[in-house]
Amino acid sequence: MSDRHVVYLTDVKLITCVLQTGLAEVVLEAATSCGAQGATVSYARGTGVRERMGLIGVAIDEQKEVVRIVASAEQAGRVFEAMYLAGNLDTPGKGIMYMSDLEHVATYIPDNILDASSQQTSDADHGS
Length: 128
What we know:
By secondary structure, this protein is an alpha+beta fold. The protein is built from three helices and six strands; from the N terminus they run ββαββαββα. The chain has a single domain (8-52, 60-123), classed as Alpha-Beta Plaits (2-Layer Sandwich), CATH 3.30.70.
């Protein structure tokens, strides 16, 4: 039998930010400066009111950058706000953001981090 096991992370959020092309880098810098550990950036096409241009109101596809970050619930609000401000999302047509609760999250966690976490949990349980 293998000694492999799945370690589930709890209290984590997914922050998704859909931006105009060219804004992802500055949004990522803001997120990492607030403690985000990494991100996934992908590219998409979007349509909307601002893309209705041309002679007969034909919808024109516009390229978008999509930034996804998994963050602890503790830091998610801070990261979300920094990303929003860095992307100037309070300006019409710049993009949209949302945050979602994640139910099952698993990834590799180094043993020293797991040991430190279980020690903190044990200390809290014993009132130390």
